[in-house]
Each structure stands twice: as structure tokens, then as C-alpha cells.
Design brief:
Elements: H1 14-21, H2 34-43, E1 47-52, H3 54-59, H4 61-70, E2 73-76, H5 82-85, H6 95-107, E3 110-117, H7 132-149, E4 156-161, H8 178-183, H9 186-198, E5 203-208, H10 216-234, E6 241-244, E7 247-249, H11 256-268, E8 272-281, H12 289-310, E9 315-318, H13 353-360
Parallel strand pairs: 1-2, 1-9, 2-3, 3-4, 4-5, 5-6, 6-8, 7-8, 8-9
Helix pairs in contact: 7-9, 10-11, 11-12, 12-13
Bound molecules: (3S,4R)-3-hydroxy-2-oxopiperidin-4-yl beta-D-xylopyranoside.
Length: about 375
């Protein structure tokens, strides 16, 4: 059942509307020109929110209360990935996506979707897809059904996630995935077109990591992102925003000049910027908690300052709220065995210095 409950439903351009509801949810005039849109963006604080774990949403009232208190926008951490959604080629399991959509609707939150086309979290049966025709048919069936189901409820989609290699060579380098292998780079434009057809009002996003730090590998990643965007635009595909995942490395500086340049070039192409998965990986930071929390906050601040100097992003989402339920330990475990501290709230949902940084950039608590 489709439930049009988001506050900006009557406004035809959902992307403009996303910006309108940012912050206070105040009703403002719909911007008609690009210049008006841009000045409006600068005037409003971005939406702050987090990735949501649907199992915890179901089982843990403290977790639910924290989401309600801190978030204006939510995104499923795993509930809309192929592995969970598509047990077989013909089936969809929408339970987790639906639960988060219902929670968002009940609490007046905007919902993002993550993610339609990725190389990870793919069910075993997809390895049997052996031709361009089969891969295209699977992608089409998936996007039509998933985006179609949530049209009017998911305002913004990570259509393509992580299309660039870990360490690109030339800017034209793309990640080797089942999509790229069979369809070439055109899979990106295809996915965007399919998503636009299934929900013409959704904001469509390419989401990528490692675009922020100093170093040649990061330079190459930024160059590859610009190259990809230019080609997608050249193909006439609908693309509205770039998601900076921002899984920041605590021990690495932000390349302020290069990040600013990247954002300004993307803005030149009239793309919105979103911070989609912010956290600070602390596996190489000192053990001492006070020192570590400060370094984590400082790194996020360095990043957000750079982003906000270049533009006001449409939203800032962290990849989880509390260290109690962080995804990172599975991937970036500390050698000393100490628990990671990468998110804005500690194990007991108390705000850490990172939360103060987020507040500086627009995060607010809801007191009800
Ligand atoms: C992660 C989840 O948080 C984990 O629970 C899961 O095991 C693997 O995926 N970039 C992304 C996210 O785009 O989808 C990833 O999420 C984290 C990195």
C-alpha cells in the first residue's frame, strides 16, 4: 500500500522539497530558478540522520527512542540490499524496508534508500547471471519493483553504490562487478534511468567512499568520480546528487583543497552533495578514550568544515548512532582489542564530542 505521508508530498520537485523541509520543516515558497534553489540551500541547515538496523528497530525500544530523538532522515543499513531482499530470482522480502518506512512515516522522518546496484551483498543465485541480457533483465526487474514499491515514501536513492575501484588507475577505471563485466559503464546510466522511471520524483544518487583524504590513491578516486559523472551526464542519464560516504580514517588528514575542488566541480554540474555514511574509523588512533574521542571529533570537523565551506549538503547521515551497534568492528578491529568509538553516541547512548561537532553543522535533538 502506498502511503503519501511525507511533508513535501504536494511539491512536484522532490529534490527542491527535500531542501525545503531541511531544518525546521517550515513551509517556504518553492524555488523556481536554480539561483533561488542554491540560495535556499545555503540558508537552511541540512537534515541530520543515521543508518537504521531494522532488527534493532524491532527489538530495542532504547534504540528506537535514540533514532527518534536525533534523526530527521534515516536509511536502512542493510534491509534493502539484494542479499536480504532477493532470496530467489522471483521473490522480494520487503519486511525490513517496510518496517523502516513505517517508522519514518510515523515519526515524520525522511527516508533514503540504500542501495540498488552494488557489488556486495549479492545473493548466491546472481552468480549464475551470465550474459548482458540476463544482467540487464535482473537489474530492471529489481529496480522497477523496489523503487516502484517505495515511490512517494523513499525520497532519495543510492542508485549505484561504490562504482569505482579501490585504487583506480586512469580516471576511466571502474570497479570490476557483475554489472560492469556484462554491461560496461553504461550500467550506471541504465540504473539511473530505471530508477527515474519507477519514481520520477526521487533524488538519484551515486554513492562512493575514499573521496576525502590526502594521498595519491584518493586523488585518483576523485578524478575517477569526476570522469564517471561527466560520462553519465554525457549519456543524458538522470543524476541529482553525489553521496560522500565519508567513512573517514582517523589517522589520515582531509585534503581540504582537493575535496573543496571536487565539490565545486560537482556543483558546477548542478549536483547536490550528500554526506551519506559518516563515521571515523579509529583502529589506528591511541587507546586513551578521551584522546581518541577528541581525535575522532576533530577529523569529522575537519571534513564537515571543508564540505560546508564549499556548499551546504542536502543531508548528513552517520552510519549508525551508537558505538554499541557499530558496523566497523567486523572490518576494522583494533589490535589492542579495545572497542571502536566511531559514532556520535557512546555505548550508553550518551553524546560524545563527535555529536557536538554534528550539532555545529545542524544536528538538533527532538525533546519529545
Ligand atoms: C555495511 C553494513 O553496515 C554491515 O552491517 C554489512 O555487514 C556490510 O555493509 N559502505 C556501504 C554500506 O555502502 O552499505 C556498508 O554497510 C558499509 C560501507
Amino acid at each position: 500500500m502506498r502511503v503519501p505521508a511525507l511533508p513535501y508530498e504536494p511539491i512536484p520537485d522532490r529534490r527542491a522539497a527535500l531542501r525545503l523541509v531541511a531544518g525546521s520543516f517550515a513551509a517556504l515558497a518553492v524555488p523556481t530558478t536554480r539561483a533561488e534553489q542554491l540560495s535556499l540551500e545555503r540558508a537552511k541547515p541540512p537534515l541530520f540522520g543515521s543508518a537504521v538496523n531494522p532488527r534493532l528497530l524491532e527489538s530495542d525500544p532504547v534504540y528506537r527512542a535514540a533514532l527518534r530523538r536525533h534523526c530527521r532522515i534515516v536509511v536502512p543499513e542493510g534491509g534493502l540490499k539484494w542479499a536480504g531482499l532477493r532470496p530467489t530470482p522471483d521473490e522480494f522480502r520487503f519486511r525490513y524496508g517496510d518496517a523502516i518506512a513505517a517508522f519514518a512515516q510515523q515519526n515524520g522522518l525522511i527516508m533514503r534508500g540504500h542501495t540498488l546496484v552494488w557489488h556486495m551483498a549479492m545473493p548466491e543465485w546472481t552468480s549464475a547471471l551470465q550474459s548482458a541480457r540476463e544482467v540487464q533483465a535482473a537489474m530492471t526487474f529489481h529496480i522497477e519493483n523496489v523503487v516502484g514499491r517505495y515511490a512517494g515514501r523513499i525520497a532519495s536513492w543510492d542508485v549505484v553504490n561504490e562504482p569505482l575501484p579501490e585504487d583506480p588507475g586512469p580516471p576511466s577505471d571502474r570497479r570490476d562487478t557483475v554489472w560492469h563485466r556484462h554491461l560496461g559503464e553504461s550500467y550506471v546510466a541504465l540504473a539511473l534511468r530505471l530508477a527515474a522511471a519507477a519514481d520520477p520524483h526521487a533524488e538519484l544518487v551515486i554513492n562512493e567512499y575514499d573521496l576525502e583524504h590526502s594521498g595519491e590513491r584518493f586523488d585518483r578516486k576523485r578524478a575517477a568520480m569526476l570522469d564517471l559523472v561527466a560520462k553519465v551526464r554525457g549519456a543524458g542519464a538522470p543524476l541529482h546528487a553525489i553521496g560522500l560516504q565519508a567513512h573517514l580514517r582517523g589517522e589520515r588528514t582531509i585534503d581540504r583543497v582537493a575535496l573543496r575542488k571536487l565539490i565545486l566541480e560537482l556543483r558546477q554540474m548542478e549536483l547536490q552533495i550528500l554526506v551519506t555514511e559518516l563515521d571515523v574509523i579509529d583502529w589506528a588512533l591511541p587507546f586513551d578514550i578521551e584522546t581518541r574521542d577528541r581525535l575522532v571529533a576533530d577529523r569529522a570537523e575537519e571534513f564537515l568544515e571543508t564540505v560546508f565551506e564549499a556548499c551546504t549538503p542536502g543531508a548528513v547521515l552517520t552510519w549508525g548512532l551508537s558505538d554499541r551497534h557499530a558496523w566497523i568492528p567486523a572490518h576494522f578491529k583494533r589490535r589492542d582489542g579495545a572497542p571502536n568509538r566511531l559514532l556520535p553516541l557512546d555505548d550508553d547512548y550518551r553524546p560524545k564530542p563527535l555529536m557536538n561537532v554534528l550539532r555545529r553543522f545542524g544536528a538538533t535533538d527532538r525533546s519529545d
